Every structure is written in structure tokens, then in C-alpha cells.
């Protein structure tokens, strides 16, 4: 049931088809108009002189921009191309097809108009200033494929400075889906989050967000490691380049979230007796013997893209009870496409109520926790199986239930 039957020939065919698709259509998105233009009378209303009237209203009351323009339904998808998918720092031009794809997903799943903006910037400070300058045009900003640690500081700065929702999908979108998946995997294996020991491999943007989110949903013990080795609170500042720059990780250490292992330990040591492995690192790091050393019915989320830390087939053969990846060609897709459309839809629905009152709309911890619970509960107990811990991205219940939960959580605040 976890088998991937894609042969090398099929992969080459997929590459050719993907290139042909993008070339044939000239990209994946286009602009559409809402107002029919049949003659000069329509132009006079939609443009000059009629357009002056909503301009005057907005000048008198800036909140009216949500009433008279499409700002209320428009998301800016912003990237500098420094950490694109599994391709790395390929730059803003090469990253544009991904951002167009993100815009396609916003429209298809949530009915939101999204505009890809790949920016050629030289510093995180420049990226922040450009985003702030763009704020009048958009109802929300989705940050995408920005390398660590810049993505963390940029996200935090924009969330503080802007009154519209700002969300870094690679951090918090991944964390929401991972937490929902772990919640359901724990239920299926008879575990309670507070009794679990989770080993988290990869402490970049996604890893640090996952660690914090797992603590928020009650996971008892989290051990983390990155390319520099096992992370320890007492040596984190000196041990890892990430810890030197990322205040989020320092907060994790300071708040005693990460389990503090002994010096000299490695991934194999941490995994002995562990309940779950979560990887957001590099393909091929997890060996079958490590899986066999874990607790009974181990949970393995090998989420590195495009190649997971261990193949699902190998993990299952080694005794894993539940296996998830970030890919679409295996079951248990722990992919942020399950989260961001509904989260943005819910936040922007709430914004329609808040903006006329002059209230900012931000995506808060409470809203993300509501999204986790809503996503985890899309599948009924009868629908959940070891190879179906999360719904398909194509399930219409996903966006509907997440957006409703997020909007209500915003109202409650």
C-alpha cells in the first residue's frame, strides 16, 4: 500500500510532460476581470471618471480599501529564491515557477487570488522594506522558499510591522501539518503526546517551528540534531551556526523544550527507544537498523524533499508502523498544501470583519493550534488508518474545516 511504482522511465516522462505543460501555457496563472466591459459606459464606471469615487472614499477612510478593491481576497506570494524546494539557492528567476504554482494552489483550493513576487534582494532588511512598501496592495503575505536564518527574522519583523496576515509556509505550514499527522499517528498507535519521545532531525526554519509546535500540543520530550550534531541547551550557542543566528532556536533551549542529551551522542543513539522520528533534513540519513532500535510500532516522518531520509518501503520493512513523507506519490502526505489554503482563507475571512473596525489581523498561535485540530479531525476515526493519517489535499473538507476553525479562533481573540 506504500509502494511507489514510478520507474526511471516514468520519471523522465514526467519531466518532459512538466516542461511541455509550462511551455504550452506560458506559465500556470493569468489575470481575470470581474466586471464585463461592453462599451464606453462601462469604461466610464470602471475607470475614468467613475473610479475617482472609490479613490475618494479610501482617502477619507483607509479601511474602505477592503470594501472597494480586491485587497480583501489577494495574497502576495513572496520569495527571494534562496531555498527553493529541494533545489537550494537558485535565485528569484528560477524560483518563479514554484511561486506561480503556489498561486495556483491558493486559487484552486481556497478561491484566493495570489500574485507571485520573486524579489532580487541583497539582504533580509531590503526584503522587509519591500514587503512593507507592498502592503497597500495585498490582504496577506505568504513568505516562501527563503533560506535560514533570514526567513525567521524576516517573518518576525513583518508580523510586528504589518497589520495584515503574514505567514511563512515553510516554517509554520509544515509545523501545522506535521503536528496534525503526529496527533493522529499517536492515536492509531495507542500513545499519548505527553508520554512520547520524538527525535527531530534538521533544526532549520521548519525544524525549529516543528519543535515549538510539538511542545504546544503537549509532546513530552523532543531531542533535536542538525548537521553539526546533537543539540544541547548548555552548548547550543557554540555548537551550531544556526543557534548563533536564530533567536527562535535559542528560545527553544531557554524554554526547556528540547531534551538535553549527553555530549557525543548521534542520531542512532537518540533513536534507541524513541517513539517517533521526524526528519526535515537530508535524504538517506536514516538507516533501517535505527528504525529497528526504536520503540514498538515506531512512527517515521521522513519529510526531506525530494528524497526522504529513508524510503517508505525500507522503513516499513524495518518495522515502522506509520510512515509519512512530504511527497505526493506516497500515502501520508505531510505537505503544507494541506494547511496554508485553509489558514489564509480563515484569516482573510476574519480580516473582512476586523479591517472596517481598524483592527489588525495576524496569524497567531491560537489560530495555528485551531488549524492543527481541524486538520487532524477531517478524517473520522473510521477513516484513519496507518496509511491514511491525514486526508488527501483534494478532499474538499480540508479547506472548509480549517478556514472555519481559524476564523473562529481569530474571533475569539
TrEMBL record:
- Mind telling me which SMART domains this protein's record contains? malic (SM01274), Malic_M (SM00919)
All copies of the Malic enzyme NAD-binding domain together span 171-411
Cite the entry's keywords alphabetically. Oxidoreductase
* Family to which the UniProt record says this protein belongs: Belongs to the malic enzymes family.
What is this organism's lineage? Answer: Bacteria, Pseudomonadati, Spirochaetota, Spirochaetia, Spirochaetales
Record domain Malic enzyme N-terminal: where: 26-159
Protein name per Swiss-Prot or TrEMBL:
NADP-dependent malic enzyme
